[in-house]
Amino acid sequence: MLGLMQSQPLLISGLIEFAERHHGDAEIVSRRVEGDIHRYTYRDSARRARQVANALDSLNLAFGDRVATLAWNGYRHFELYFGVSGSGRVLHTINPRLHLDQIAWITKHAEDQVLCFDLSFLPLVQAVHSRCSSIKHYIAMCDEAAMPKDSGVPNLISYESWIAARPATYAWPNFDENTASSMCYTSGTTGNPKAALYSHRSTTLHAYAAALPDVMCISARDAILPVVPMFHVNAWGIPYSASLTGAKLVFPGPAMDGKSIYELLEAEKVTYAAGVPTVWQMLLTHVKANGLKFSHLKRTVIGGSACPPAMIRAFNDDYGVEVLHAWGMTEMSPLGTLCTLKNKHDTLSDDEKMKIRLKQGRAIYGVDMKIVGETGKELPWDGKTYGDLLVRGPWIVREYFKNEGGDPLVYDKAGAGWFPTGDVGTIDEDGYLQITDRSKDVIKSGGEWISSIDIENIAVAHPAVAMAACIGVAHPKWDERPIVAVVKRPGMDVSAAELIQFYEGKSAKWQIPDDVVFVDAIPLGATGKILKNRLREMLKDYVLPIG
Ligand code: AMP
User: Fold this and answer.
1) How is the chain split into domains, by residue range?
2) Looking at residue 337, what DSSP letter applies?
3) pLDDT digits (tens, 9 = 90+) for 343-380
4) What are φ and ψ of residue 257, in 5° steps?
């Protein structure tokens, strides 16, 4: 017997319609590429999203056609999120930090028809357009007055004139909620990038889940600043969750430095921000150096790579800002776990609470996870046994776009398909996940595993260390031993011996790195993550001192 409830597809257009109707006057504030601050409301945004949909129709784009963006976090990008997906096309957010060859390759692979870009990316578009054969229309996200002269980019039009001529009414089409809505290529370090192809259903369910109190806790009382870029996994779904709840949105545009972010947090009374650890490091450095405080910021979600305990403590103890450590990946839309405490933890001491909060957190309803050993057998949740982390759920990829790379899933005895995350971790009795490493980065020393994340976390807690990255190097007796590459803070000094000494008492003796290598910079990838492969290459002539 079927239930007798209305079946209304979960569509992205429904989110912006809801925001317009119920939170029409809630603000969306953006620092523009032009440098000024732009402010308008969800009502204005919904109207312009409909103009975008009409403008796409005028280009004769078919249902399912891909529309690419090369853009920062801002209101025009936000309108494209809804105008493109809402009208049945697929939004392809391109990471501008990728290599030109990769950008050319993915626009062709995605068969993008249109490319909308912020003017700061004009040089990039000029350099790459001749290799993007599928793109027929180029839209500069600016008004007519700001249009570049003689850009050399074919069929270039300004976003403002493109949409201004279109009606502000549009009947959002109704279609199957499993229809593709947006896509994001993974920042894979080997082989060609692969795309996660999200659906209206997966995006809407993820938006609901992300807003839950034990997840990102987003409400109509919040003012949210997503520093996490809209070109990386839909800014962790924040544009959708904000529309679903009516939260004020504050977009930082291209200015991601500590000073600019701090100014926006204060001026717009931001209660809530989200980003990767490298960005927050810049913010903390600025705040500390200038003796500042946060007047409104209450919470910040930090994820994308392991958040160093020293950062969680600094936010918590020095500034009274709660850090929510999150783990996820492009293939998971991206949220998998978030670290919030349970009722039974109320009576714990601050130190004990902190120990839990340093972990990556508990699974969100909608994400099923398990750790398995080499044979695929599920391992116990004891907080000690580590294994390969597998996940499944309605916002986790089943396969990549165009079935690139074949079937990614591993199947259990019951035939259920699980996505192998490539991460290694432990899960404790209460279901808290702790990521030990990427499986390819874990250091195997004498048959035991050493977590490179643990080693990095200790190093960055030293006051003279700005950044640290740990890799394994070959060792005749132990197979591999860890060494740590360190960037010193400007004007501060520490010797290798002092830093090794710093590990005493903080880690098991055999897990202490054998050496410290000081470097000017640690190679970072397009999403701000440490590129261990590149670091290994950089240190290929390094010889381990064997004592
Ligand atoms: P991406 O798909 O580029 O977002 O990368 C996903 C990967 O980032 C995950 O598989 C993890 O290896 C890593 N990652 C994300 N969040 C965390 C976290 N909180 N702690 C440790 N690693 C993380």
Assistant:
1) 12-26+41-165+174-199, 443-538
2) E
3) 999 999 999 999 999 999 999 999 999 999 988 999 99
4) -75, 160
Comparing CA positions, the residue from 249, 252, 185, 207 lying closest to residue 31 is 252
State the Cα–Cα distance between residues 10 and 280, nearest whole angstrom: 34
Looking at residue 165, what is its pLDDT? 87
Considering only CA atoms, which residue is closest to atom 6 of ligand 1?
Answer: 329
Cis amide prior to 334 (ω within 30 degrees): yes
Name the residue at shortest CA distance from atom 15 of ligand 1: 304
Measured CA to CA in angstroms, residue 323 lies from 237, 239, 309, 349 at distances of: 18, 20, 10, 17
Q: Which CATH number fits domain 12-26+41-165+174-199: 3.30.1330.130, 3.30.200.100, 3.30.870.10, 3.40.50.12780?
A: 3.40.50.12780
Q: Which two tokens stand for residue 83?
A: 């105008």
CA of 425 to the centre of ligand 1 (A): 12
* Closest ligand 1 atom to 306 CA: 20
Which residues does 505 contact at the CB level (< 8 Å), separation at least 6?
A: none
Per 3-state DSSP, the chain is made up of helix, strand and coil in percentages (nearest 5) of 30, 25, 40
Residues of the chain above pLDDT 70, percent: 99
Q: Which class does domain 443-538 fall in?
A: alpha beta
How far apart CA 210 and CA 237 sit, in angstroms, is 7
Quickly state the pLDDT bin for 547 (edges 50, 70, 90). Answer: low
Do the beta carbons of residue 104 and residue 131 sit within 8 Å?
Answer: yes
Closest CA to 56 of 91, 8, 32, 24: 91
Contact 308, 454 (CB under 8 A): no
Q: Which residues are catalytic?
A: 186, 331, 444, 449
Average pLDDT, the chain: 94
- 332-345 pLDDT, tens digit each: 999 999 999 999 99
How many angstroms is it from 450 CA to the middle of ligand 1? 18
Do the two domains 12-26+41-165+174-199 and 443-538 of this chain adopt the same fold?
no
Contact present, 419 and 329 (Cβ < 8 Å): no
Out of 57-61, 202-206, 306-310, 356-360, which region has the weakest mean confidence (pLDDT)?
Answer: 306-310
Average pLDDT on 174-202 reads 89
Close Cβ partners of 344 (under 8 Å, ≥ 6 residues apart): none
Buried b / exposed e along 232-248 (16+ C-beta atoms within 10 A): bbbbbbbbbbbbbbbbb
What lies within 8 Å, CB to CB, of 207 at 6+ separation is 15, 237, 240, 241, 243, 244
Pocket of ligand 1 (CB under 6 A): 186-187, 233, 303-307, 325-330, 334, 360, 421-423, 435, 438, 527
